[in-house]
Amino acid sequence: MGSASANYIRNYLEDGTAVGVVKFSSTATVLADMTVIVNETTRDTLVNVVPTTVGGGTGIGAGMLKCGEVSYRFLCSAVLASKGQNHYWLYAIFPSQ
């Protein structure tokens, strides 16, 4: 997963794209706040925080909520990389406007 994510950052995201990295298991942690890719140095910085090993459970909900916290200022998409199916259930209620 780490190499696939690194490859995606290095070879598929265009300059000017904002990227953040969130690691999740039973909880979620921000590894890189939203960063605009401007050159290879920026790409290297982002690639260097991508985890190279996996472990623990898989809390996809926690990861997606943390993703929302990181990216709320941007109109963006999320790419989810996971080692398996969800092991932790997390429910969020989003009120309609």
Please outline what is shown here.
The chain has helices at 2-11, 40-49, 60-71; strands at residues 18-24, 28-36. With 97 residues, the protein is an alpha+beta fold. α1 (2-11) packs antiparallel against α2.
Which labels suit this protein?
97 residues, alpha+beta, two-stranded antiparallel sheet, disordered C terminus
The level of helicity is 25-40%
Shape estimate:
globular
Q: How many independent structural domains?
A: 1
Annotation, overall tally of beta strands: 2
**Radius of gyration, CA atoms, in whole angstroms:** 14 Å
Distance between the termini: 37 Å
Q: How much of the sequence is in beta strands?
A: 15-25%
> Reading side by side through the largest sheet, how are the strands ordered?
1-2
Helix-strand makeup class: alpha+beta
**Which oligomeric form is depicted?**
single chain
Query: What is the chain-wise order of helices and strands?
Result: HEEHH
Please specify the SSE layout and strand pairing:
Layout: H1 2-11, E1 18-24, E2 28-36, H2 40-49, H3 60-71
Helix pairs in contact: 1-2
Fold and architecture overview:
By secondary structure, the chain is an alpha+beta fold. The chain has one domain (2-71). It is built from three helices and two strands. It has a two-stranded antiparallel sheet. Strand 1 and strand 2 (28-36) form a beta hairpin. Helix 1 (2-11) runs antiparallel to helix 2. The chain is globular, with a radius of gyration of 14 Å.
